[in-house]
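Researcher: Structure for this, please.
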Amino acid sequence: MPSQLPTHLLQTLAYQKGINYDLSNFQKTLASFGNPHHSLNNIIHIAGTNGKGSTLTFIAAALQDLGYTVGTYTSPHIHSYCERIQINNSPISTPNFKRLCTDAISCVSSLSTEFEVLTLMAFLYFQEKNPDYCIIETGLGGRLDATNVVSPILSIITKIGLDHEAILGNTIEEIAAEKAGILKPPIPALTIQQNPNVLAVLKKAHPNLQIIPALSTLPKNLHMQGLYQKENLALAQAALNHLLPNTKPNFQKAHIWGRFERKEINGQTWIIDAAHNPDGIDALIQTLTHHYPNQKFTFVTSILQTKNAGEILSRLAPHALAIYYCCFDPQIAHSYQEIQTRVPHLKIQEIDVQEIQKIPTKNPVLTGSIYFISHVTLYLIS
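Model: Predicted structure, token format:
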């Protein structure tokens, strides 16, 4: 991560303020900056448990191929905070990031969180650069997420599953209700065909919600070949048909890091997939067994403290030759001792980051927290 960035200020906010699932403070902050989000062009707002980043990437690639400039705001980042705020796949420059971050942090409330500061910075940057489209991804939930101050031309909800239960609710219906908070009838909205209980909640919030079936197959010329992309690409195609009905969108250039990605590391092919919740693990396993039938895998993983580690590891276990667990950051990841307590019946081996490249691996799969995967990948490649 570039040393010039004021990352220590943002990381301090992340650790000290955590998540503030409430809009009242942020709305006051935006007003003090002249509500920059009100001046953005053609906003597309995306919420969901899994698939937000991929759906955003497909839409952005197609719009860029048609000649439009596209601003994107995503989270989390892989290697640098700059990645979260991009125009046409180019991250905000270090000087611009530093300038906007310094301005934001010097003026925001003492109650402001890391995500609120970054969201404000994205709005200010897009206001300056004036892209033709702005695609905004929620950070968590929807109803009270900091991004849910925008007035979009299209709202999209991807696949919904159990995640962040402590904040969003313990049932899939409660979580769906929070995600449905981004729906603003009569603004058009799309979602993917999914759990009927989820759809019932979403339809109650937006009676004219368009439900899109998943594709039966993926084009062979796509970079992104995880089976779960059949849902995300279907949503992207529907979005382009709504936005620009007389065009033929091209999604070939879409690529997002860490979504069933094959990477040669030290002469061995690793599968890298940022599956970090139970539904994500199910999607990863489905894709693995499709591409590598009747095989088992060596999983290397780390799981954030906010995630259901027992459920995740239990879903990996039937497909595992071995499972290695790495507590890459004790402040945010489950410790190995916690893992042993949660799944005492599973054989989970502890490993340090620097030892990963030395383990005897067959069919290695790196999965779990995006922060963990980026950290390990940088280490292995270096």
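Researcher: Any notable elements?
Model: Residues 114-129 form the longest helix (16 residues). The first strand starts at residue 43 and ends at 47.
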